[in-house]
Fold each of these.
Amino acid sequence: MSDVEGPGFTIKDKRSSNQSEEEAKAADASQSKEQAPPEEKESPPQGFELNFSTFMLSLTSSAFYHLGDIPDPITGKKEENLPAVKQTVDILIMLKEKTKNNLDADEAKLVEQLIYELQLKYVAKQPK
């Protein structure tokens, strides 16, 4: 087996290597530091908790971006992409159905409110 490279990783076949185990570990450590994208080197912000509510809010924020309500963080431009908004609303509705009777009252209320608000904004942005 030869070396295999892909996006963000390299697989090295060490079966035929004459390196000692310590040298191989040191080489792997230095190579992984060089190849890791910047966002992988940093840990999530303190106090950040990934749960169902934060996941739903993340999906919703991308829909607001596609509605043109939130500017692109890099360019500062506001752009509309209504098909992406519809897709996100459809995903939220699907998740609502798939998680039925498995959410606590606050989570269920949050999902309802997010879907409702996005649907209103989506309809308001439709060409007349």
Amino acid sequence: MTKFRVELTSARSRTDVQMEALFAEGFPEFISGDKEVGKYIARVRESFREYDLILTDEDDQLAATGWGVPIVWSGQVSELPSSFADVLRQSIEVHDGSGVANTFVICGALVHPSLKGSGAAASLISALCDTAAAHHFAKVVAPVRPTRKHLYPLLDIEDYAAWVRDDGMPWDPWLRLHVRIGGRVIGLAREAQTMTDSVSRWEEWTGLEIPVSGDYIIPKGMAPLRIDKAADLGTYVEPNVWVRHR
């Protein structure tokens, strides 16, 4: 198995070509439609560089990247942040002196397309958990975005998260990896992100013509997109699955 080196993303600069290759199969464009996340993301990126990691392979090529933020959490599933934006908001509050963080939230994880199946994903999640331990956070959680939920956009996230293989492991590959390295599914984030924008923007993002109001199945969408032509508004609500690590 390939061995990976872990370093802070801020440790050295990378070329645009390198970063574009790393993110080549990243998140769909419509993720940028979460306006609540947009309120916090720039400040979060600036404030928590010590939790932003890059992995490189034996040839010093970019293999994976991931990041997270600290929050205060009681340990009760019912008191987890209500959305990804809420995670970021709470982390900023902690940064500004509202409480002492005791929980690390893994917010993002991405593997270079050419290194999927190489062990980079497991190494990345383990490195993020190690970072949490190094900063003395007692708890680690992640709002996991299942990688194959988009193939079943009409299936409720509760049913999807409960879907297992014959060996009892989660059917979804990304959930399965988290569980295989010690994570445990603890809850659902039914409204992890809410993306809204004009109908024309949704047509641009999806490549679809949207002629009338109604629900639409969109490429890479985990749930239907709801269109209101009269209001010139498309709303897409994406679910995630809460996983707790060591």
